[in-house]
Every structure is written in structure tokens, then in C-alpha cells.
Specification:
The protein is mostly helical. It is 75% helix and 4% strand. A hairpin with a 6-residue loop joins β1 and β2.
């Protein structure tokens, strides 16, 4: 079965090319749907497939930059992108990405990059999943007093942050937000720092940050998130390539799948809204957490390495398949419903 593997010229490892295509397709669908670039799946996915962690991050950022461009263009057609907000957040993001990349190179130099970054991943994923499900719980409690999915308010940290009236103040029309310019700039710096350190394009925290810290509607947060991820990923790919930690061949193979998947994921956001997006996002984060935890156990207890790695790989790719199936099915259902409505409207004319 050697023909299923391809030699990576820079890192020197053998990687399954069908695995790269499947991972790329899944990330295209999921990234386009959640607006998170997909790096939170790609980096651990590439690491599980056999890439050293630093190469997994650099390669992830490279394929993510191309995938984000495709998804952003698609979301723009649906009016889901606040270009003013996204452009302002690029300022802090680029500074943070460069600092994050330098931290990774240092950790690699002292031999701690793999374990340290996996622990950081697990802490971040735990916090994000907690935030998402607490938000949903708070919103659903309001249904008993007549609120709807559109009017119920969950975590509203952004309301407190909007009270910080440090000039200059700015209005984001598409997002419907009025706040201090410094709020998105400072948030974007920390997003960039996490992006450059963990190789997730910042997208994993951009979506929650836009919703809970800035106050964007979910669909606008998705589109604007991808717009910002596009620039941070491009810069991240550039700086990691200069440092010799990018496998362009693997990125190109993944792009074959992600280019197709991104069209499906972005179109699905037209038909899937609110709680459905948040539930799927939260469950996906938990699945990735379990996968990374098993990978860490494998590194600490080599005698269980093969078992843990096998289960970790199964969970990660099973997660990709389940999410892609869910998104695709809901997309088909939405399209059918729309077509029926149009036919009914034509009959009434």
C-alpha cells in the first residue's frame, strides 16, 4: 500500500495523500460553515497523520489562506462580511501572528513544542466549549418568558465592553455595532498571538470573540471571521515559509479537497442559523479536545501509543465526516424548502 503515501520533501516524512484530501475537504466544509478557517482541525490532523508540530502549523496556515479566500468571496455574496470591522482587526492580528511564530520556534529549539502546544490547545478548547454551551443555556432559559431564538440574549460580555468609551468611537454598519476602536484592535492582537502559536488562523476564537466580545450577529460573525482569517493565515504562511516549516506539496493536495468543501460550507450558512451553528460548533470543539488529549497520552505512555493514536485519528476523521454530513443534509433540506416556496409563490401569482 506504499502508493497511498507520498514523501514530503522538506520535513522528510511519509504522509497518506488520501488522508490529506479527505482532511482538506472536511476542513473546507467545516471552515466555510463556521467561519473558522479550519485550522483547529488541520493542525492536530496533520500532526496525527505524521507531521512534526511546527510543520503541521506552517502547512495548515498555507492551505488555510487559500481556503479562506474562497469562503470569504462566497460569504460576501450573502452580505455576511463587515469589511470595516474585519480590516481593523487585521492590524493587531498581524503583530500577534509574528510574535506567536517566534514563540513556536523557541519552543521547538528547546524541545517542548509538541507537548506545550497540545496542552495550550486543550485549555483553549475547554474554555471555548464551556462558553458556547453556557451561552445556549442562558438563551433557552429565556424561552419561558416569551423570548425567541432571535431575541434571547445569552452571554453578553460585549455590553460591558461597549461601555468603555475610549475614543475614537466607531460604527460598524453591517454588524450593527458601535464601540471604541481599541476594542477590536486589542482583541485581534490576542487572536493573532494564538493564531501564530497554535496555527489555527485565529478563527477558532474569532467566531466566539465576534459574538461574545464585540456583539456581532452569528451569520455576520462567520463571514467577517473568515475575512480576518484570510489575512492572518496569509501572513502566517509567509512567516512560517521563511522559517522553513511549510510543506507546500501537502498544502496543494489539501486544497483540492478544501476548494470543493468550502463551496458547500459557505452556502449552508444561508439555510442554517443560530442554535444549530452553535451546537455543532461546541460539539466539534469537544471532539477535537478528546482527540488531542489521546495524542498527549500517547506521547506520555509509549506502550499505549498505537492504541491512543488510532482512537485519536478515528475521532478526528469521524468528527469531520459527521459534521460534513450534518451540514450537507441541512443544506439540501434548505434548498428543497426554498424551491418549494418559490413554486408555491409562482402558483399564487
Amino acid at each position: 500500500m506504499n502508493w497511498l503515501y507520498i514523501h514530503m520533501p522538506i520535513s522528510g516524512v511519509l504522509i497518506s495523500w488520501p488522508g490529506l484530501i479527505i482532511l482538506g475537504f472536511g476542513v473546507g466544509v467545516i471552515g466555510g460553515f463556521f467561519g473558522v478557517g479550519g485550522g483547529w482541525l488541520v493542525t492536530p490532523g496533520l500532526n496525527i497523520l505524521g507531521f512534526p508540530m511546527s510543520f503541521a502549523i506552517g502547512t495548515d496556515l498555507t492551505q488555510m489562506s487559500a481556503n479562506s479566500i474562497i469562503s470569504t468571496m462566497r460569504h460576501s455574496k450573502f452580505g455576511n462580511v463587515d469589511y470595516k470591522l474585519g480590516t481593523i482587526m487585521i492590524i493587531g492580528t498581524l503583530v500577534g501572528v509574528e510574535l506567536g511564530a517566534r514563540i513556536v520556534i523557541y519552543l521547538e529549539h528547546i524541545g517542548l513544542v509538541g507537548s506545550v502546544l497540545r496542552y495550550c490547545y486543550m485549555i483553549l478548547l475547554t474554555f471555548i466549549s464551556w462558553t458556547v454551551f453556557v451561552d445556549i443555556s442562558k438563551q433557552k432559559k429565556q424561552f419561558t418568558v416569551g423570548a425567541t431564538e432571535e431575541t434571547a440574549v445569552g452571554i453578553d460580555w460585549y455590553k460591558r465592553l461597549h461601555r468603555i468609551n475610549v475614543p475614537p468611537m466607531i460604527h460598524f454598519k453591517t454588524a450593527g455595532v458601535y464601540c471604541s476602536l481599541w476594542l477590536p484592535v486589542l482583541i485581534s492582537f490576542f487572536i493573532g498571538l494564538i493564531s501564530g502559536t497554535l496555527g489555527i488562523g485565529g478563527g477558532l476564537i474569532v467566531l466566539p470573540a465576534f459574538i461574545y466580545l464585540i456583539g456581532c450577529p452569528t451569520h455576520v460573525a462567520v463571514g467577517t471571521s473568515l475575512y480576518g482569517v484570510m489575512f492572518s493565515a496569509l501572513y502566517g504562511a509567509f512567516t512560517y515559509t521563511l522559517k522553513g516549516r511549510t510543506e507546500l506539496l501537502a498544502a496543494l493536495i489539501m486544497l483540492i479537497g478544501s476548494a470543493v468543501g468550502a463551496q458547500i460550507g459557505t452556502t449552508a450558512t444561508k439555510y442554517i442559523k443560530g442554535f444549530a451553528i452553535k451546537y455543532a460548533f461546541g460539539l466539534a470543539v469537544i471532539g477535537v479536545f478528546i482527540s488531542i488529549l489521546l495524542k498527549q497520552v500517547a506521547s506520555k505512555f509509549p506502550q499505549y501509543g498505537n492504541i491512543c493514536t488510532g482512537i485519536s485519528t478515528g475521532i478526528l476523521f469521524g468528527l469531520v465526516i459527521i459534521l460534513c454530513t450534518f451540514i450537507t443534509v441541512r443544506l439540501v433540506q434548505g434548498v428543497r424548502k426554498e424551491l418549494k416556496s418559490k413554486k408555491a409563490a409562482m402558483k399564487n401569482v
